[in-house]
Each structure stands twice: as C-alpha cells, then as structure tokens.
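ok trying this again, last paste got cut off
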Amino acid sequence: MPDKPSASIRKITADDPLAKSANVVANNIAALKAMFPELVTEGANGASVNIDVLKQLVGDRTVTDAEEKFGLNWHGKRRARQLALTPSTGTLRPCPEESVDWDTTQNLFIEGDNLEVLKLLQKSYAGRIKLIYIDPPYNTGNDFVYPDDFQDNIKNYLEITGQAGAGRKLSSNTEASGRFHTDWMNMMYPRLAVARDLLRDDGVLAVSIDHHEVANLRSMLVNLFGEENYVNTFAWVNNLKGRQISAHGAALTHEFIAVWAKNQDLVEEFTVQVEWAKAQMPSAYRGFAYEVMRDAKGEYVLKNQLYNTNSAFNESTRPNLVFNIHFNPKTEEVRTTDIDDPRRFEGFHVIKPHRCNDGKHKYHAWRWGRPKVEQEKDDLAFIVSGDDVRVFTKVRGYATTVLKDLITDISTNEGAKDVESILGSSPFSYPKPLSLMQLLVQSITPNDDDAIVMDFFAGSGTTGHAVIAENAGLNGNRRFILVQLPEVLDPAEKSQKVGADFCDKLKRPRNIAELTKERLRGASSSIKKASPLFKGDAGFRVYKLDTSSIREWQPRREDLSGSVAAGVDHLRPERGDHDLLCELLLKRGLDLCVPIEVKTIAGKRVHSVGAGTLLACLDKRITREDGEPLALGIAAWHKEIGPAGESAIIFRDDAFADDVVKTNVAAILDQHGLKNVRSL
C-alpha cells in the first residue's frame, strides 16, 4: 500500500454534470464557440451571444432584429423553447417484476412524463432512433394530460399522477379559453424539439394528427426540422362512411400522418411488401400480377420501360439522358452513341428515345445515363419484335413496392378489435390499428436494420406490438422504446370507467400505463404462441420516472442540525443497487439494456457494465481490511475484461470507513491505470 497516495476519489453531487441529463444549452454554446469564437463572450451571468456579431457572420445586413419575420409565433414560444433546453434532474427506476424477459430483452417501456423522459434519454440515445411515431392529443377541447411546471417538472409530474399527495386535476383546454391553439403548441413544441436530437441522421418523425392542428403542427416542424426536410403527409382514410355528426361542411373521412426527416437526403424510399399491402389495402394496391423471370443474377420482373414518360424530361432539359442505344440480340452486347451520331454497328439494333408529342421537343429522355446503361446492362431487358426493340428495367426487389401516401381499408374500429383479441375487451379509447403501425414500421425501418422505434405518446401500446409483430414476420431485429404517462383513470368518468375497471381486475393502480403494459404482455404471449419458430425479442423492460437518487441538500431553518445530519448521506436510503446503476447508465450515456455482469470481490458485489465501460461497487461498507483486496480485485477483473476505452470506477462515498481507506483504494487503482475513480 503506498505511503503517499497521489490519487483521489471525486464525489458526484447533485450539482455534478453526471447527476443531470444532457445540458443542451451548454452543448449549443460549446458548438458556437468552436465555430465562431468571437460570437460568445463570458459575463457576470454566464455566456452571452453577441447578436450583432452573429448577423455579420451570416451576412445579415439588417440593423435591428425587431423587424417582422416570416414564421410561426405564439405566446409562450420562448418559454416552451427554454423548457426544452432545461436539463432534467430526475432518473428512471427499474421494475424487473413488471417486465417480460428482463435479462434478455432490448425493448423499453418507460412510465413517466414524456418530456422529462426524453431529456433523460438524451445522453444514451441521441442520434440513435430510426423512427419516432407519436399520436399526441388532437386538441379537441378535452383536458390536456401534459401540463408543464417550469419550476419543478418532476414534482409536478408526481403530483399529477397521484404519487405525491392526493393528485390534482389536469388543466383544461377548452376552445372558450382563448388560448386553445397556444396551449397545445406550448405542450408539443418542447417535446418535438428534444425528440429531434434523438433521431439518427437518416431518422424520421411521423405524427398522427387531425384537422384541428395539422397546420400549426406543420409550422412547428418547419421551425424545428426545416422546410427542406419535409417528406410526406399521409392521408389515412379511417372512416370511409364519414363522420355523420359534422356540424357543417363535408363529412370527415380521414386523418393525417405528417412525416419529417432529420436529413431528407439520407432517407430512402418507403417500401412495403406487395402481398401484405394487397391484403391490407386492396383499394390502393391492385394488380402486381407480374411474371417472375430468372437470369444469372436471380429473379426479376418487368414493370416499366427505360424511357421517362414525362415530356418535361427531354433533349433540352436533360441532354445527357437523350442518346442512342445499340443492342446485339446474339451477343447481348450494348453500346451507346450521341443522338445525332449516324453510325450503325453490324448485328446491332439501334434504339432511339421515344418521340415527344408536346410539339416543342423531339425526344423523351431515358431514365438512365449512358455509363449506367453500358455498365449495368444485366439489369435491362431488350424485347425484340422485328425491327422494334423495347427496353425494360429489371426489378429485382419485386416483392416490395413504394408506399403510397394514401392509406386505405384500415379503419379506426380495427384498433379496438386488435386489443380485444388479446385482452378480451378494449379498455382504451380509439387505439390505433395494429396494421396501420405495421405499415409504418415495415416501410420506414428495413428488416435488416437494427432500428430503434420510439413512441413517447404510447397510449394503447400499438407501436410496440407492431414492432414485435413485424420482427416475427421476417425474423427482424428492431427495438422499441415506449413512453406513457401513468394518467389516473377515474371510474366516475364514463370514458374512463372501462379502463379503471380493467385495472381493478388486474389488481393494479388505475392508470393508463398499467393498461399499456398489460397489452404489451398479451401481445408478447400471443406472438410467441402464433410464431413458435420466432426466437427474437418479444419482451420489454419497465422503468419508471422518479426523483434522482442523489439528493440535493435542502436546509430547514427550524431544524438546521437535523438538516445537516440528513445531508451527510446524499443518496436516498430507499434506493438499491439497481436504482443507482440505472442512474449511472443514464448519466454516463450508456444503453439501458447494456449487459451487466456481477462478480464478488473481497466479499463485495462488483458490477461490470457494458464490458467494463463502468465498474461499480455499491456496497455500503468498505473497511480498512477490505480496501486493498477490493481495489486489487477490481484492477485484476478490469485487466481480464480488457475494455477498449477508458473505464470509470464508482463507489458509494459513505461506504468507506474513513478517508485513509478511500485514498488508498484510489491510489491502488491509479497504479493499475484506472484513473477515472468517482464516488456517489
């Protein structure tokens, strides 16, 4: 044991960055300083941005920023933006007993206020989500279930859901309030802002919405994602009979699904399985009775000729796509020449572009350029009839087709039937149909992709059910993350009585999250039974939002001595190892489903998280006799694991018998190259 240890263990307090979610403001300032050092200055109140310098840097010649600008503004927008930037001090607590296949699953169900949960997931899942689908409140005049307290959102959440105090009434948002649209936008904006950062570069956001807020939703998404990243707005014909109780105008037959990309340039075509689409949506997907042929490269079908049918693409607009193709039917050799080149080759048919009938141009353009025609001729089919030759492109992926932006033959009523088939009844109000969500999951997330699908207004859990169902169909690897507020169900309310009674039957608390979990359990069991050969992931881990395990010191004037005594142990006494480990995962940016190994060293349980990325001994007592063998054992295990990067070593701060033990443990670990040693 060293006489003069040079290392020390730094304590993680409530003010430590490791005790908070990602600080978006600090990250933004760091990015600005890295790009434009002269833009950010430090003052008495922290960093500030020089707006005049910013204007000069971007070439803005205006003198003042008070002029009117194009864009969406509403009362509370600045406050909503600030709420999105405020870090969360909460945590997620694991609930293995409410989960399915806890030890092996990669899926997550998180019970809590979705804004706080999204913030907590920033470090672990930023830039990792392929598809975010949400079905938020449609703002039809009912109560909002997501009021935000700008002072203490965790406390606000616990009170609303009855976990602290007796619970309280949700705020009302009737059309008579005068802030009908404003309240809805203030609720949605920060959630969309935080969600955007979770998307992969090729990630997509899809939002179900009706006519009440579709225009405002689009404006918000333009603001957050940029006009250039708009992808589609699907029209979902969910009630072809129409809503006959419409007070005026035409009967409503459809809703919308607005789709935006983080970077549209990286988003591929949305494709759907032809046979599945024909069975689910026969009104929109007819035909497809193609003859399947085979060549040396495999099976293919012929759908379209090579020429572009749009006369706007011609020798004037696309001169590089207007040329002669020469084909030898005996040798199958292909050559190309300029359109006005008179040369002919023996044994070759000359194929000119199709004639244009717009009265202004001679030819339609080809869909392929000359290099592609010559180099990829194996993917062209030449149909010779006398002197006439037609050129078709061979479609290899004939089993799929590009998804249309019109969704038909899937009615709202199907959602209730889906739930009834699993639970025996439907305790949800208007659950989304399983086939609708399967359509989105299938078309936006390729089957060979380990994509993560998120839904932070999980409701009936259809999104999670769809992910498992799609995986089972083609043995896929997608994961899901669902977030749902445990909104209290009141049996006195007619619309909530069925759900409340169902919770009573389950002997679970009366809230929507309990119903969601039960639907997911039923879906998991049903899919395993229906697809016995599917060995993929049909489980989910349950986590619940709560206050951080690291307490802030809150002195009480009337009992200062008691406050000091209570502040000695800054970890909440009711929190166990699993709670602390989960918080460490979140605050260090590790996946919540990362593998965790446990080994007993010197009589203490030591956890290895993520193949040695984090080693944690959370035992409550480390004596002088324990210190040296524990430190040496941890160092030996770390060497055995051999993690690629730097490892963090974590202890309970109050576990050490005294400062000597603490200092010596740090020194021994330091001698073995483990310098990042912290305490909770």
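PB: full thing came through this time. The chain has a mean pLDDT of 87.
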